[in-house]
Design a protein that fits this description.
231 residues, alpha/beta, Nucleotidyltransferase, domain 5, 2 domains, 5-stranded mixed beta sheet, 10 strands
């Protein structure tokens, strides 16, 4: 059994293949937001390194968002196309929920920069959603941590880079312990998608390609302005 996993919601695209024994191969793009050009190359490299054929793939997994709108569309469209052509089931993985595979006992708070003080974020402990994944003002996410006195939270995501000082000041004033994840595990990756997908595959949590849809969590900025009559 092999799962082919795509992650295109962040700054760099990546592709992974994982088998039933958790053997994993990952290839990442080195070019910012160049997902469309790189995906097929990265997938081919993974297949070659795992010494398998495309026909050996059992399911297609993809991060459905939130994150880069363009990246989400590319990833979901690619996964749907492959699944349709090869008659394979799909596994949808939320980009925020994918971070759950990194910690077993610690509370984690992945935050993705949505600009203007906003983030896509959530607060998770194992399979518990302390704060469900969604679009929030960062201050509201931090207030949940403060109000519930959640100690030793680990922050993930590019929201750290955008709002590091605000997070530090707020958390220090609360008296709660926290830390930022290491740079190598801070961002979305196909490795996380693949590991999360393996759990879903084992539980039979599969969907057809027609059921695979992007999860933007909010409208694109241009569409929002259009709806508000600003353009």
């Amino acid at each position: 059994m092999y799962i082919l996993a795509f992650e295109t919601t962040g700054k760099y695209g990546s592709v992974a293949i994982i088998d039933g024994s958790c053997n994993l191969c990952v290839h990442k793009s080195l070019d910012n937001f160049n997902h469309l050009k790189d995906l097929t190359i990265l997938a081919s490299n993974c297949i070659k390194d795992m010494n398998i054929k495309m026909e050996d793939i059992s399911a297609i997994a993809v991060s459905v968002g939130p994150g880069s709108f363009t990246g989400i569309r590319i990833g979901v469209s690619t996964a749907r196309a492959i699944a349709q052509v090869m008659s394979l089931p799909c596994i949808e993985i939320g980009s925020l929920e994918s971070f759950k595979v990194l910690e077993k006992d610690q509370v984690i708070c992945p935050i993705l920069n949505a600009r203007r003080g906003q983030v896509y974020g959530g607060i998770f402990r194992r399979d518990e959603d302390i704060l469900k994944a969604g679009p929030y003002m960062l201050v509201d996410v931090l207030n949940v941590i403060k109000d519930r006195k959640i100690d030793n939270v680990i922050f993930y995501g590019d929201g750290i880079d955008a709002y590091e000082e605000m997070i530090i000041q707020t958390m220090k004033s609360s008296g709660l312990n926290f830390r930022f994840s290491e740079e190598e595990t801070r961002h979305q990756s196909a490795e996380l998608v693949a590991k999360a997908a393996l759990r879903k595959y084992a539980n039979g949590d599969l969907i057809e390609f027609e059921e695979l849809h992007p999860e933007y969590m909010r409208k694109a900025e241009a569409q929002q302005k259009l709806d508000e009559g600003k353009i």
